[in-house]
C-alpha cells in the first residue's frame, strides 16, 4: 500500500513536492501526450493532462469540404478503428439526409465494426500489459491476431487501417463468398487466441498485483463525467449505445453487456476480454444471418450529394466508447458545423481523479487502461 | 490445484509453447524475412493512383475534366488541359501531377472518375531520397498501360473493360441508328433547295 508521508515523524525530514512532465514523447503515453505530474515522493498528488500535440484541425477542415470528402479523414481520428469511425459519420449523415441503408449493408457494417472492436481490444490489453512491464510478449501475441483482421480489412477495403470503406447509404465493396469465408475463419480462430491470452494474463500474479485496486473509478464519477465505453462499464455503469439506440441491426442480434464490479485497472482489462467474447457471438450471428441483396443504396450519388438543411447527431458504440458526430447543414454541399464527440478525449477527463494517491508507475497503467488514441483526443 | 506462482508458471508454459511451436507450425510463425520474401497483397489493396492508357501513352483515357482535382479531399491533384495551336482543348491532360506526400490513398478520385481513367496502384515501395520534387508524380510517371492494370487487378479490370466495351458498342449502335434514321429521313424528304451559302458581304456604306 501507499506509504503516506505523514507516517514519517514530523520535523525529522523536510520534504517538498516534485513536478515532472511525463511525455510528450514517451512510449508509455500512447502517442504525443503529456502529463504534468506533481509527486510527493513516489505518490501522485496532482496530474494535469496536456493535449493538443497532434491537433490537425479536422473539424474546421471538414467544414470546408464536401460531405463525402470528410470520410477518409474520419479514418484518421481513431486510427485503430477506422471502420467504426466511418460508420459513425455515415450514420450521422444518413440521419440528416434521411437515407435508408440496405439490410445487407447494415450486416456488413456490423461485421466490420465488431471485427474492429476485436482488434482494438486485443491491442488495447496488449498495450496495457506492456505498460505493466510485460515487455513485448502479450502485445505481440495480440498483434499477431490483430494482423489477421487487418488482412481481412485489406482484402475487403484495400487498406489495412485507413479503410475509407463506408459510404452514405451502404458500403463501398460488397463482401463476396471468399471474403465471408475469411471472416468466418477469423471468428472461428479468435476464441483460441483469447483462451491462450487469458491463460497468460488473467490469473498471472504480477498482473493481479499491479492492476487490482489500482485507479478505481467510482460509478457516480463515471456517470457524472459522462464516461462511456469499456471504462464506464468496468465501473458498473450498464450503458451500451448498441443496446440503447439499437442502431443498424443490433436489435436483431443477441449479446450481453458485461459490467465490472470494482472499476479498477484489472476490471477494465477483463471487461475488454469479456466484450471480445460478446463480439464473437455477434459476429457468428451476423455471418450466419447476412442476407443477399445490394450493399449500397443506389439513389445516393457520390458526386453532387445534396443534403437538406437541419442538424443531426449520429452515435455508435465505438470500441473506446460513444463516438458521436454532430452535423449542421445549411443545405449546401458542405457542412455548416461538424463536431465530433470523441470517447478517448472525454474518458481522459477523469484521469486525474483515478491517479491521485497512487504511485507514478500506476499512473502509467491507469492511462493505459483508459485506452486512448491521440489521433482522436486531439483531432 | 492451486499453489503460489501458478499463474506465472502457466504463463511461461504458454510462452514456451509459442516459442517452440514457431519452429514447427506455420500459424505460430507469422513474420517473413522482408526483402527476400514478400507477402502477396490482396487484389483490392491500394496505394497511390495512376492513369490508364489503352494503346499509346499519347492517348490516355483521361480527358482532363478535372473532376478528381475538385473532389480530391487533400487537393493533391493538379491538372492542366492540353490545347492545340489554336487554343482548342484536346481533351487530354498536358500536366497531371499527384503529390504523393499529400495523397492519402483514399480512392475518391477513382470512384468519381466517369471515364475509368484513374485507378489505384498497389506498388508500395515508393521511398525516395529527396523530400520535395521526387515525391510529385508527373504525367509520364503516372501513365501506365491497361495491361498493367489487368495484371495487378484482374477482376476489377475485366469488369471495367467489359463495361467500357459495352458503352462503346452502345454508342456505336446509337450512332449507326442515328445515321440510318437520318439517311431514311433524307431519302423520304423531298429535295429541298440548299440554303443560301453565306450571309451576304456587308454592303459598302456610302460615306
Write up what this structure looks like.
- The complex is a heterodimer of chains A (379) and B (207).
- By secondary structure, chain A is of the alpha+beta class.
- Helix content of chain A is 46%, strand content 14%.
- Chain A is built from 15 helices and ten strands.
- In chain A, the strands form four sheets. Chain A has a three-stranded antiparallel beta sheet with strand order 1-4-5. A three-stranded antiparallel beta sheet of chain A has the order 8-9-10. A two-stranded antiparallel ribbon of chain A has the order 2-3.
- In chain A, a hairpin with a 4-residue loop joins β2 and β3 (31-32).
- In chain A, α4 (103-132) runs antiparallel to α14, α5 packs antiparallel against α6 (177-201) and α11 (265-289) runs parallel beside α14 (360-370).
- Chain B is α+β, with helices and mostly antiparallel strands and 207 residues long.
- In chain B, the strands form two sheets. In chain B, strands 4-1-6 form a three-stranded mixed beta sheet.
- In chain B, α5 crosses α6 (154-188).
- Chain B is elongated.
- The model of chain B has no long low-confidence stretch (mean pLDDT 82).
- Chains A and B meet through α2, α5, α6 and α7 of A and α1 and α3 of B.
Ordered list of secondary-structure elements with their pairings:
The complex is a heterodimer of chains A (379) and B (207).
Chain A: E1 18-22, E2 25-26, E3 31-32, E4 34-40, E5 43-50, H1 58-62, H2 71-75, H3 82-97, H4 103-132, H5 137-157, E6 166-167, E7 170-171, H6 177-201, H7 205-211, H8 219-224, H9 229-234, H10 241-244, H11 265-289, E8 310-318, E9 321-329, E10 335-341, H12 343-347, H13 351-355, H14 360-370, H15 374-378
Antiparallel strand pairs in A: 1-4, 2-3, 4-5, 6-7, 8-9, 9-10
Helix pairs in contact in A: 3-4, 4-5, 4-11, 4-14, 5-6, 6-11, 11-14
Chain B: H1 6-21, E1 49-53, H2 67-71, E2 77-83, E3 89-99, H3 108-112, E4 118-120, E5 136-137, H4 139-142, E6 143-145, H5 146-152, H6 154-188
Helix pairs in contact in B: 5-6
Amino acid at each position: 500500500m501507499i506509504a503516506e508521508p505523514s507516517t514519517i515523524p514530523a520535523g525529522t525530514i523536510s520534504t517538498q513536492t516534485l513536478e515532472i512532465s511525463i511525455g510528450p514523447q514517451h512510449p508509455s503515453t500512447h502517442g504525443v501526450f503529456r502529463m504534468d505530474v506533481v509527486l510527493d515522493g513516489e505518490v501522485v498528488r496532482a496530474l494535469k493532462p496536456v493535449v493538443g500535440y497532434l491537433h490537425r484541425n479536422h473539424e474546421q477542415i471538414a467544414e470546408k469540404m464536401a460531405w463525402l470528402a470528410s470520410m477518409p479523414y474520419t479514418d484518421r481520428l481513431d486510427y485503430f478503428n477506422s471502420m467504426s469511425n466511418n460508420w459513425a459519420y455515415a450514420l450521422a449523415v444518413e440521419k440528416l439526409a434521411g437515407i435508408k441503408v440496405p439490410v445487407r449493408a447494415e450486416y456488413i457494417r456490423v461485421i466490420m465494426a465488431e471485427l474492429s472492436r476485436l482488434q482494438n481490444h486485443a491491442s488495447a490489453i496488449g498495450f496495457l500489459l506492456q505498460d505493466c512491464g510485460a515487455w513485448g510478449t502479450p502485445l505481440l501475441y495480440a498483434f499477431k491476431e490483430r494482423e489477421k483482421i487487418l488482412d481481412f480489412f485489406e482484402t475487403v477495403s484495400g487498406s489495412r487501417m485507413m479503410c475509407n470503406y463506408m459510404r452514405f447509404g451502404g458500403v463501398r465493396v460488397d463482401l463476396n463468398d471468399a471474403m465471408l469465408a475469411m471472416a468466418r475463419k477469423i471468428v472461428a480462430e479468435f476464441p483460441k487466441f483469447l483462451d491462450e491470452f487469458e491463460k497468460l494474463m488473467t490469473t498471472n500474479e504480477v498482473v493481479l498485483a499491479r492492476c487490482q485496486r489500482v485507479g478505481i473509478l467510482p460509478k457516480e464519477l463515471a456517470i457524472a463525467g459522462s464516461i462511456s465505453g469499456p471504462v464506464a462499464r468496468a465501473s458498473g455503469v450498464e450503458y451500451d449505445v448498441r443496446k440503447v439506440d439499437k442502431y443498424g441491426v443490433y436489435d436483431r442480434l443477441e449479446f450481453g453487456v458485461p459490467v465490472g464490479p470494482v472499476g479498477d485497472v484489472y476490471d477494465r482489462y477483463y471487461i475488454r476480454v469479456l466484450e471480445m467474447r460478446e463480439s464473437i457471438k455477434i459476429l457468428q450471428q451476423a455471418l450466419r444471418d447476412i442476407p443477399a441483396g445490394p450493399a449500397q443504396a443506389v439513389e445516393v450519388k457520390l458526386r453532387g450529394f445534396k443534403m437538406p438543411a437541419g442538424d443531426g447527431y449520429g452515435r455508435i458504440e465505438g470500441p473506446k466508447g460513444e463516438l458521436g458526430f454532430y452535423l449542421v447543414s445549411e443545405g449546401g454541399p458542405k457542412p455548416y458545423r461538424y463536431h465530433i464527440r470523441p470517447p478517448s478525449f472525454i474518458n481522459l477527463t477523469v484521469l486525474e481523479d483515478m491517479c491521485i494517491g497512487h504511485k507514478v508507475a500506476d499512473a502509467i497503467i491507469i492511462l493505459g487502461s483508459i485506452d486512448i488514441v491521440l489521433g482522436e483526443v486531439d483531432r | 490445484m492451486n499453489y503460489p506462482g501458478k499463474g506465472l508458471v502457466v504463463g511461461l508454459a504458454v510462452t514456451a509453447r509459442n516459442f517452440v511451436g514457431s519452429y514447427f507450425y506455420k500459424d505460430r510463425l507469422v513474420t517473413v524475412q522482408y526483402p527476400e520474401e514478400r507477402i502477396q497483397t490482396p487484389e483490392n489493396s491500394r496505394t497511390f493512383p495512376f492513369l490508364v492508357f489503352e494503346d499509346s501513352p499519347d492517348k490516355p483515357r483521361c480527358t482532363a475534366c478535372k473532376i478528381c482535382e475538385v473532389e480530391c479531399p487533400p487537393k493533391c491533384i493538379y491538372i492542366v488541359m492540353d490545347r492545340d495551336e489554336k487554343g482548342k482543348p484536346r481533351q487530354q491532360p498536358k500536366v497531371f501531377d499527384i503529390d504523393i506526400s499529400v495523397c492519402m490513398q483514399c480512392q475518391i478520385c477513382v470512384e468519381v472518375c466517369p471515364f475509368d481513367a484513374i485507378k489505384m496502384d498497389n506498388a508500395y515501395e515508393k521511398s525516395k531520397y529527396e523530400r520535395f520534387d521526387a515525391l510529385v508524380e508527373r504525367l509520364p510517371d503516372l501513365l501506365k498501360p491497361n495491361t498493367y492494370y489487368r495484371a495487378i487487378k484482374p477482376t476489377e479490370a475485366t469488369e471495367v473493360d467489359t463495361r467500357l466495351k459495352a458503352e462503346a458498342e452502345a454508342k456505336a449502335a446509337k450512332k449507326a441508328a442515328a445515321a440510318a434514321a437520318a439517311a431514311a429521313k433524307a431519302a423520304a424528304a423531298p429535295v429541298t433547295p440548299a440554303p443560301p451559302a453565306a450571309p451576304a458581304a456587308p454592303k459598302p456604306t456610302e460615306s
